[in-house]
Amino acid sequence: MSETTGMKNDLSELLQLVSFKIGKEEFGVDILKVQEIIKIISITKVPNSPHFVEGVINLRGRVIPIIDLRVRLGMEKK
């Protein structure tokens, strides 16, 4: 019988991430927080929205805000 001290061998506790890059920075989001990833579609601009909001899209009848994470995180706009 083998004994493991101070180490967990239960793989169910591993965190799975969806990773992406903005410029040279790499980010990760818990995969359980991601509903879906879609291709870019037409964005409708929204007047008087915060500077980091690019606009909104219609995704199967739902209005989804599109945020420029580069701007939101204070990075240089591409």
Describe the 3D structure.
By secondary structure, the chain is mainly β. The protein has a domain at 36-78: CheA-289, Domain 4 (OB fold (Dihydrolipoamide Acetyltransferase, E2P)), CATH 2.40.50. Helices cover 5% and strands 32% of the residues. The protein has 1 helix and 4 strands; from the N terminus they run E-E-E-E-H. The protein has one helix spanning 69-72, and strands at residues 17-22, 25-30, 53-59, 62-67. The chain starts with 16 loop residues before the first strand and ends in a 6-residue tail after the last helix.
Describe the structure concisely for a colleague:
By secondary structure, the chain is mainly beta.
List descriptors.
single chain, 78 residues, mainly beta, OB fold (Dihydrolipoamide Acetyltransferase, E2P), two-stranded antiparallel ribbon, 1 helix, 4 strands, 5% helix
